Amino acid sequence: MSFQEGSVGVEDLVLLEPLEEGSLLKNLKLRYENKEIYTYIGNVVISVNPYQQLPIYGPEFIAKYRDYTFYELKPHIYALANVAYQSLRDRDRDQCILITGESGAGKTEASKLVMSYVAAVCGRGEQVNSVKEQLLQSNPVLEAFGNAKTIRNDNSSRFGKYMDIEFDFKGSPLGGVITNYLLEKSRVVKQLKGERNFHIFYQLLAGADAQLLKALKLKQGTSGYTYLNRDVSRVDGMDDASNFRAVQSAMTVIGFSKDEIQQVLEVTSLVLKLGNIELKDEFQANGIPASGICDRKDIQEIGEMVGLNSEELERALCSRTRETAKEKVVTVLNVIQAQYARDALAKNIYSRLFDWIVNRINESIKVGTGEKKKVMGVLDIYGFEILEDNSFEQFVINYCNEKLQQVFIELTLKEEQEEYKREGIPWTKVDYFDNGIICNLIEHNQRGILAMLDEECLRPGVVSDSTFLAKLNQLFSKHSHYESKVTQNAQHHYDHSMGLSCFRICHYAGKVTYNVNSFIDKNNDLLFRDLSQVMWKAQQPLLRSLFPEGNPKESSLKRPPTAGAQFKSSVAVLMKNLYSKNPNYIRCIKPNEQKQRNQFSSELVAVQARYLGLLENVRVRRAGYAYRQGYKAFLGRYRLLSRSTWPSWNGGDREGVEKVLESLIVSSEELAFGKTKIFIRSPKTLFYLEEQRRLRLQQLATLIQKTYRGWRCRTHYQLMRKSQILISAWFRGNKQKKHYGKIKASTLRIQAFVRGWKARKNYRKYFRSGAALTLANFIYRSMAQKFLLYLKNNLPSTKVLDTSWPAAPYRCFKTANQELQQLFHQWKCKRFRDQLSPRQVQVLREKLCASELFKGRKASYPQSVPIPFRGDYIGLQGNPKLQKLKGREEGPVLVAETVKKVNRGNGKTSARILLLTTGHVILTDTKKSQAQTVIGLESVAGVSVTSFQDGLFSLHLSEMSSVGSKGDILLVSDHVVELLAKMYQAVLDATQRQLSVTVTEKFSVRFKDSSVAVKVIQGPQGGENNKLICKKKGSHSLEVTVP
């Protein structure tokens, strides 16, 4: 046993002191509160359900536990799985892992962890991985069809499961065989308040698509099905829809075909539909009560889905055929009997479907008969149960647990005895409670309770649960482990908790009172032959195969075996299987009823500890010597306690252990030396060794610390001394280097001054004093002359748009070169302007004005740039009538063109001729020669124009003018850029003010005493006609759609 530093409580209860129920519970609670959920009893693992995910699983921990022996690390389920797998692989010993505990204790999760560990540590390869995947994927399928939400557990296994995983000689999985025990099929037709039916029903209704539901004659939602508890349709943290998809995927991985999956779902649907068949009272002509079906819709849908004759099914549900060797008698069933027949059929169909699924999985994962194989069995079965009302199910479950307890005690004692024999230590008989008397009370072939129950079911005459109880009272009246009201009265012992229809058995885990009501019916588990025959006539292959006894050729008048007899024989086969293997145990405990994390109910755990016989387990383990360990491991741990073996020992391991124990005060009665192991009788002795080791470790730690501190100080001092010497040497050397450098620099400076003085003295003797300046000026002028001559010969063209210019040859001429470039450009521009005529100058000014007003603001501006401004677009010179409109005193006409005037009242347009002179804007009708509207430029307050390619604009007039009193004018021009640019220049020349030109899609125009809001939108590109469309929107809004 490895004692982990800083471990919480006692990791192995074999070493618990004192050995009492209170100290055991206190130790489990202490470890649970510190998230240590695993504890050992020797090689038995106790697992307390944490109800949360703990970071103690996964590949990292699997790799950790596969490299160590059982006791070298903290208790863990991986350690037990590793011991079992290594013993199977290396010692060629078949193994079995027994997982027990009550519902909600975590048995299913424990079995998954064992299987995931074995799958992770065994071999690799495509075939091996396929087998492992099939074994692992069997879990979600069996959970869907065999698990349900109960009051105690959201994912409770409602069946017992034993899986044999078969390996080859290398330890790689070949396949397996699954055996199921006692499915709780009564749950199909009835559930307690707060519980659900089996998961598959809810998964099917939540996860199936509309097409599949239609094929199965189902509707989404659980409210429409009698067999489903409507109060609890969902479970927190469980996604039924995604689980259904996972089940379908798992079935495919295992090897189910699409047809098989469809048939399984059809049979599942059939069970739901059976529950919806509502029966009613009817009477025959002679007044005998009979039964009938209220609504034939469900029974017809069942017939259509699986190929059944709905009339035959109705007849089988409402009547019964009794057949003897000579005659057949058909009797009608009343409503209660028909409901019993319907529910019995539903339970049998589901139970047989579950058995078929298990057998189908076995077909996929079975191993060929010719291969030699090793076997590891994993048993996940119900724990001992004591409920408020215990019936037939609890009776057989507790019988199974009695047998498992018997196996545990016998195999544990046998293992202890074999180990003592191997080590050459005398074996003393261990006193323990032998529960064989209880097993015999239940399973004896002639005088057992199960035998009496079968006898009562088979005998002719009036049979009831009361006659069965009376027989038990008569037979076991003096049995020490049997009680009932009758036996208590005979002994003048009165117990108000004992009912008249009850009997009590003193199990190893405590007394359990059973109510005999329904014992006969549940043991008979009868299905009327008529129903079997109707099911066999189904066209669907799977449903037909579930009822082979319905075949008339194979029909037998022999009564089928009872449920108790079947379970007894299954348990006998299981026991035989377990006795042939080396057992490993996982005891699962539920810490609280609320399924909450960090809550530990000592009362609840105490009851489970008694059920599981934990104290009994510890006492058996401590019957002889409580602790044993190999000499090498023991010496490695405790050799530091003796001066003879510490710090080094060169002798044998056993001699070293003897030396260690001789140096300690340990009684010889507490020790026994085996061939390979040392045995210690009392945990106190082991704790004494551990305490001595702890004190010795403190002494050694102090010695190590003292030695280390001395070494560290000496090393630090020597390092500091070396550093000081090195720093001093470097400092002195650096100081001398700096001093030498200063002297050298001073000498060089003095020499330089002297040489300079001499050179200047000689220079004055032979040259003029201003020669250097003269030479420098000459050189600079030569460079400037060269630069200017180069520039003269390489001048660019005189085109205004040519911006090229030669680069300066020297950096000193960079600024001058830029100035010359600017002067040359200005000269080119002046030369170009001088060549222009006044008309060309005026055109460029107008273009410049248009650019300033509309560049980047009006979409039609880029198209107007290359087109010259003509001004006259109506042939003004050839039309004397129009020339009269401008008047004699007016200047030249700047723009003459045809525009469209928009009526502000209705949005319609009409053609007008517009003349722009230097002083007025004149509008006239195209058919008349008289001016209709003359607007002085001083009356034009502003212009609004859009940013689109249209020619719409608004002349905003001053309110003070005579023309402006009528309101603003809305016009459309094909040359709007030219018109507005010239109007802007004309207003500036005439009034010395800038005309306000606004580019916007929303503006307002005055109309008499009110205003009209104009909104301009752009129509679709490439429309039928690119025309401007005006629509009146109410009395004060105008919407204009432009192309």
Description:
With 1043 residues, this protein is an alpha+beta fold. The mean pLDDT is 85.
Q: Please give the number of β-strands.
A: 31
Provide mean pLDDT, rounded: 85
Largest sheet, spatial ordering of strands: 23-22-21-20-26-25-24-27
> What is the beta-strand fraction?
15-25%
What structural class do you assign from the helix and strand content? alpha+beta
Indicate the multimeric state: single chain
Overall 3D shape:
flat
Q: What percent of the residues sit in helical stretches (DSSP H or I)?
A: 40-55%
Main sheet attributes: strand count, strand direction, barrel closure? 8 strands, mixed
Q: For the CA atoms, what is the radius of gyration?
A: 54 Å
- Please work out how many helical segments DSSP would assign: 32
Low-confidence stretches: none
Task: Provide a brief overview of the structure.
With 1043 residues, this protein is of the alpha+beta class. It has 32 helices and 31 strands. The longest helix has 84 residues, at 683-766.
Describe the protein's topology:
Layout (H helix, E strand, L loop, with lengths): L20 H13 L4 E4 L2 E5 L10 H8 L10 H15 L3 E6 L6 H15 L4 H21 E2 L7 E2 L2 E8 L5 E9 L17 H9 L2 H6 L24 H15 L3 H18 L3 E5 L5 E5 L3 H10 L3 H9 E5 L4 E5 L2 H31 L8 E7 L11 H32 L12 H8 L5 H10 L6 H11 L6 E3 H6 L11 E6 L2 E6 L3 H6 L4 H8 L4 H5 L17 H17 L2 E8 L12 H11 L1 H8 L5 E4 H8 L14 H10 L8 E3 L3 E4 L2 H84 L4 H23 L20 H22 L2 H17 L6 H4 L15 H6 L7 E10 L6 E9 L2 E6 L5 E6 L3 E6 L6 E6 L11 E4 L3 H16 L4 E4 L2 E6 L2 E9 L10 E4 L4 E6 L1
Helix pairs in contact: 1-22, 3-4, 4-5, 5-8, 5-12, 6-8, 9-10, 9-12, 11-19, 13-14, 13-21, 15-16, 24-25, 29-32
Keywords: Actin-binding, ATP-binding, Calmodulin-binding, Motor protein, Myosin, Nucleotide-binding, Phosphoprotein, Repeat
Pfam families: IQ, Myosin_head, Myosin_TH1
Function: Involved in directing the movement of organelles along actin filaments.
